[in-house]
Write a structure and sequence with these properties.
Layout (H helix, E strand, L loop, with lengths): L1 H6 L1 H16 L19 H5 L3 H27 L1 H4 L7 H10 L14 H8 L8 H16 L14 H20 L13 E2 L4 E2 L1 H24 L19
Helix pairs in contact: 4-6, 4-8, 4-10, 7-8, 8-9, 9-10
C-alpha cells in the first residue's frame, strides 16, 4: 500500500500543479459576452436553506428582472416623450431609481397599479401617463406575483408551475400589443423594433423572447419536479386575455 502511494506521488504532484495553475489563471471575458446576474447574498447559511429548484428560481427571476431593466432603458430611449412625463433624469437614472429603490413597486405616477392592470393601462387609448413605466412595472410585478410574491426562494416556498406558464403567455400578449397597438392616428403607442428599408432591429423581440423561454423552461422543470400538470390554453393573440394566477 505504501509502495502504491509512493509511485503515485508524481501524478499527485502534476494534478496539484494543474489545479493550482487553473485557480490562478484569470480569464478575460469577451466584451460582447452577456453578463450573468450574481446573487447578492451567497453566504453559506443562506444557501443551506435552498434546494436546487430554489437556486434555479433565483437565477430565473434575477435574469428576467435584469432583462426588464434593460428593456425599460431601451423603451425610454425609443420613446423619450414617455420619460419626460414624470422626470428630467436620464433614462438610465430613471430606470435605476425604479429597480433599486425601496418602494414596494407602488408608483403614484401610474396610479399605483400593478400586474395586468398596469400592463393594460399602458396600451389604453386615453391614458396620458408614462406608458413605459406602466408597462414595465406591470410586467415585473406580474412576474413577482407568478413566483408567489417573492424574488428569492427557499425550501419553505412553493411556486405553482401553472402560474409561471401563464406569465409566459401574458408576455407573449404584450409582445403582440407592442407591435400592433396603435392610436387613432395609426401610430404605435410605444416604439420598439426598427423595421424599414434601411434597418432591421429586432432587439426588443429577442429580449422578450428570452423572458418567455426562461419562464417556459422553469414551468416545465417545476411541473416535472412537483409532478403537477400544466393546462395549456390556446388563444388568438389579437383577442387574448391576460391569464390569471
Amino acid at each position: 500500500m505504501i509502495l502504491k502511494l509512493q509511485n503515485s506521488c508524481p501524478l499527485l504532484v502534476l494534478i496539484t500543479v494543474a489545479l493550482f495553475l487553473a485557480a490562478c489563471t484569470t480569464t478575460i471575458p469577451d466584451k460582447n459576452s452577456k453578463h450573468i446576474p450574481q446573487q447578492s447574498d451567497r453566504n453559506l447559511l443562506s444557501q443551506l436553506g435552498k434546494s436546487d429548484i430554489d437556486r434555479l428560481a433565483d437565477v430565473e427571476m434575477r435574469e428576467n428582472t435584469q432583462i426588464l431593466s434593460m428593456l425599460m432603458t431601451k423603451l425610454y430611449k425609443r420613446n423619450p416623450r414617455e420619460l419626460r412625463k414624470n422626470t428630467t433624469a436620464t433614462a438610465e437614472d430613471a430606470v435605476k431609481s425604479i429597480f433599486e429603490n425601496q418602494h414596494g413597486w407602488r408608483f403614484k405616477e401610474i396610479g399605483e397599479v400593478q400586474g395586468s392592470y398596469a400592463i393594460q393601462q399602458a396600451f389604453r387609448p386615453d391614458y396620458e401617463g408614462d406608458r413605459v413605466m406602466s408597462l414595465i412595472v406591470g410586467l415585473q410585478t406580474m412576474l413577482i406575483k407568478a413566483h408567489g410574491g417573492k424574488t428569492e426562494f427557499y425550501f419553505t416556498d412553493t411556486i405553482e408551475p401553472q402560474n409561471i406558464f401563464n406569465a409566459a403567455r401574458n408576455v407573449e400578449i404584450v409582445v403582440w400589443q407592442l407591435s400592433n397597438a396603435r392610436d387613432d392616428k395609426g401610430q404605435l403607442k410605444l416604439l420598439t423594433n426598427e423595421l424599414n428599408d434601411h434597418e432591421r432591429n429586432l432587439s426588443f423581440e429577442r429580449e422578450f423572447g428570452k423572458i418567455i423561454g426562461s419562464l417556459d423552461l422553469f414551468a416545465i422543470t417545476l411541473s416535472e419536479k412537483l409532478q403537477r400538470g400544466i393546462t395549456r390554453v390556446v388563444q388568438t393573440l389579437s383577442t387574448a386575455l391576460f391569464l390569471p394566477f
